[in-house]
Amino acid sequence: MSATYRALASVVMLIGFYVVALLQLAAVVALGVWLFGHTSGVITGKLLLPLVVALGAVGVGMWKAIRTKNEPAPGLILDERAAPQLWATVRELATAVGTRAPDEIRLVPEVNAAVGEQSRLLGLIAGRRTLYLGLPLLQAMRIDQLRSVLAHELGHYSGRHTRLGGVAYRGRVAIGETIERISPRNPIGWVFKGYAMLYLMVDNAASRRQELEADRASVALAGTEAATSALRTLPALDAAWGFYMRRYVEPGWSAGLAPDDLFGGFAHLLQARRDEIDELRENAPEGTPSRWDTHPPIGVRVAAMTSVPPTAAGADDRPAWILLADVAGAGRALQSLVVEHGSRRLLPWPQFVAESVAAGVQRQADGIYRAAGRFTGNAGPGLPTVLELVRAGRLGEFAERFFGGATREEAAAAFAGPMETLLDNAAVRAGRARWQLSWSGPAQLVGPAGEPWDLAEVAKLAVAPESLDEALARLAALGIDVGAATVVQARASARDADLIGGLANIKIDGREHDVLVLDNGLVLIPDPGKAGEGEKRLTALVGSVPVAELAGRHPYLPYEEITSVEVRREVPLKATLTLFDGRTVQMQELMASEFLEKRSRDTLLTVFRRING
């Protein structure tokens, strides 16, 4: 069966989706007529209303799908001047696979490549073609590996896989919109969900076969080694990109900063951590087949590639980025198109890392300072507050809360780690040290002339009363004013927090709330809305804005302000939270409460157990 006919199967399934809707509509009408003849109009209306609402959702989903435009995704359009060698390569490969070259090439920020076609009349008439090429692929791959990726994507064109892509996409939109709008308790929704699962199984099976077909073009034009190594490089590169964003970009981004060369930084990381990425590629997981995947597992694809008769394609280990006239300029242009910086300050990488790491260390220090303030009753705590506890011999008592199960003596000694963080922060705030960028490892603290600074030994001296004065003398000799190191953020915020759960229509002190469970606190949203729509409401809420912004709009209760939790009943949940200032918060789950995901209550109970130690 050709790829076109397999894709047509998805279209037939989509048509079947609406046939099912029409049959159910006919059944509802027949039921309504029967009920009206045997019961009152009021009873008929009450019984039919949920069914009519469900069928209305089908109409809304279909209307949204029809109105969805198959527009090209955002990216930097590469013309002949920007990428002469890339265009020549693409045209050569297109001729080799027997297809028309794309009309445009768009550089995109993803670790991916794809093709699209704006076809008409259900794919019967070909349309404008777009090749999407991820800049990270150009930065990380050899030319022969990139040729295999391009041959694979052009193979989708020669196999006519893209002709019905728009129709299949609209089908997914229609089904997704319909399912989202039908209550999980509605019996009509059960039928649609079952059919949706069947539709996705058929559509995904067609997609997997098309990927294997396109892989054959990849091997034929680039060779087995280039094709298989490129395929194994993709998950390694994806992991490297994720690491890069988490470790290098996001800390500064959350601090109101942005790097002025986002993609250039990734190129530096690839160069500095080449051995690590090679190891990731060699150990890429084979994967296990699933009927829900749109692509076969890597192991299946590699096995299929190695079974294709070998070709005479030659190796080309030159870096793929030479196919662009100016890869650095293309990266900056792409960043300006696809990255919304908002009010963030654009900084060169060395300054960006220095300020972002300093902001992170300050947040860690603030957490310790706030705890010291609660412990001592000091309204403006800082490093002097902690050092006074050391001199008074009370550091162990204070440090116990950071090292559960340790004795006071053990906790005081272990506090050398947090103390080093406080001293590093004090050195930066005094202008005597800064954080230096390293692409091969964590940022390093360096002194005025760029010499490495290590305050670990001073921190060990600073946690014992008998050696505290020596520690202070060493700090003074380095020009560090410990008195200037004070709390910056007097109350914990949800910045950098992750959402780990959500509960809808929970009573907080007798008033209904939606509760978002973050990894460092609770967002309490009063008077959220009627019960029965809680899961849908929570899903829409957390998908609309970042959780840190939600915490800024609504009452926020950091876990560090909760001294203990008394759980009087786990299911349905009933608990009393006692705060450090003596106040209590009553929390009670209702019969109508719903969860963002089914383990949200268990997640919250785990948080409570951690608070209680």
TrEMBL record:
**Single GO molecular function:** metal ion binding
| Gene Ontology terms describing biological process | proteolysis
Keywords tagged on the record: Cell membrane, Hydrolase, Membrane, Metal-binding, Metalloprotease, Protease, Transmembrane, Transmembrane helix, Zinc
What are the subcellular locations of this protein?
Cell membrane
Instruction: State the InterPro entries in the record.
Output: HtpX_protease, Peptidase_M48
For this record, the Gene Ontology CC terms, alphabetical, are: plasma membrane
Its membrane topology is listed as:
Multi-pass membrane protein
Chain ranges passing through the membrane: 7-35, 47-66
Ranges for domain Peptidase M48 come to 130-306
Determine if Cell membrane is one of this entry's keywords. yes
Please give the cofactor(s) recorded in the UniProt entry for this protein.
Zn(2+)
Q: Name the Pfam families on file.
A: Peptidase_M48
Provide the protein name: Zn-dependent protease with chaperone function
Its source organism is: Micromonospora sediminicola
